[in-house]
Amino acid sequence: MAWDEWEQLKSEAQQRQQGTTHMQLNQLPVDPGGGSTQGDLKVSQKDLAAIGDAAYELNQAFEHFSDLARMSSIAAGDGLKGEGYAIGSALDHVAERWVDQVRSLLDATAHISNHLDYTKGAHAGDEVYIAGTLSSIATLDQGFDERKGS
């Protein structure tokens, strides 16, 4: 784009904007029910437990089945090498790399399961703290109401 072209585009844009005010607000659409929402993300302890359990089950099943696949690949690689096929060595190499990838996935699923178990416990503790704080406020309110004679 030439300099003259750039200046012309700027001038045209400025002429279009003269006399008008432009504003853009980024927000959620208004709730048609009239209620106020604090967000749409909700999770229950039951949901967290189900996700953690699923991650644990995936971890256990993948560990078992991936080991079967690795052992089959090693056996096939050995058989092919014994018959003089070069692909046997390549299959051994794949089986070795497979172990690294499996460990990464197993670590990730274990991390998910453990983190969700921790989160479940942490939120349960938060609930107890919040309930205690709110009951303390209610006790203070009751004391003020009694003092006012209500």
TrEMBL record:
Residues 1-20 are annotated as: Disordered. Residues 11-20 have a biased composition (Polar residues). It comes from the Bacteria. This is AG1 protein. It comes from Streptomyces avermitilis. The lineage of its organism: Bacteria, Bacillati, Actinomycetota, Actinomycetes, Kitasatosporales.
